[in-house]
Design goal:
With 273 residues, this protein is mainly α. It is built from 12 helices and no strands.
Length: 273
């Protein structure tokens, strides 16, 4: 395992207190990436692939008119090349994550199918890939996020009397319980020590406040589970994830929070049609 003592020592503090951080994701990519080993860069890439996912979906829907987010690993030109390779059935470029190629293969074989929530399809491929990461810390982080997201969407589906089974992403013990259990806690109280916290969050009707509490929960998880990570890639992973949370709140307002919530409900209903 590589030791990044100098890199970690040079990182600024990031705080979840509403203050802006002068550091940026772009600067992280410029300052940190050149010093990472190939394997460690792939671990960090797992975080940024979430933005690559959003950009791929945007390009598939809007083509050249798509407005892309800059936090991902790939440029517009690279993403177009990846999509074209998937469309033609070509071997993807070296380093392209397997989940992305698998999704594009599936997409182009089923793109005319109606009422498909492609975000969920891509998320399923992405999380399957991320939770199987050889880095134990990263795998646990993505498992935690997958579970939290699935619990929230399952509770939202229940509230609106929609089918839960179609909304849950991925497989495994927790996903299966969410799809099949009729219990208030989906039978997960003895399995997940944070199920009650997520339930309380789901009941908060103040959407921006709920989002804030959810990110506070994620922040605590990162702190609690990285206590003994000092100068390894895990510490860089934690810093980048926290930096993304801070950047997110710097540009978040109540209106955009409501817009995302309404989009989620629309996607749930679309999947039920």
């Amino acid at each position: 395992m590589s030791n990044y003592h100098c890199l970690v020592a040079g990182l600024p503090d990031v705080a979840f207190d509403g203050s802006k951080c002068q550091y940026s994701v772009e600067r992280f990519k410029e300052d940190i990436y050149p010093s990472l080993s190939v394997d460690d860069a792939r671990v960090v890439d797992l975080i940024l692939h979430e933005w690559d996912n959003a950009n791929v979906l945007s390009l598939l829907r809007r083509g050249e008119e798509a407005v892309l987010q800059q936090q991902g690993c790939y440029s517009r030109e690279q993403l177009f090349a990846i999509i074209e390779a998937g469309k033609c059935g070509d071997v993807p470029a070296k380093g392209v994550p397997a989940y992305l190629s698998r999704f594009l293969e599936y997409y182009f074989a089923h793109e005319t199918q109606e009422n498909v929530v492609w975000e969920n399809v891509l998320s399923a491929y992405y999380y399957e890939y991320a939770v199987s990461c050889s880095n134990r810390f990263a795998a646990q982080w993505f498992t935690f996020n997958l579970n939290v997201n699935n619990i929230l969407v399952a509770m939202t589906a229940r509230k609106y009397k929609l089918g839960v089974e179609e909304c849950v992403v991925g497989n495994g013990e927790v996903a299966e319980a969410l799809r099949t259990s009729g219990a208030r806690d989906f039978g997960l109280t003895g399995t997940l020590d944070y199920i009650e916290d997520v339930q309380r969050l789901s009941e908060n009707t103040r959407l921006q406040e709920r989002e804030h509490q959810l990110d506070e929960m994620r922040w605590r998880w990162l702190d609690d589970n990285s206590v003994f990570c000092y100068f390894s890639v895990e510490r860089l992973f934690v810093f980048l994830q926290k930096l993304l949370i801070v950047e997110r709140w710097a540009g978040l307002d109540a209106e955009s929070g409501m817009e995302r919530y309404n989009e989620m409900i629309a996607e749930l209903k679309k999947g039920m049609a």
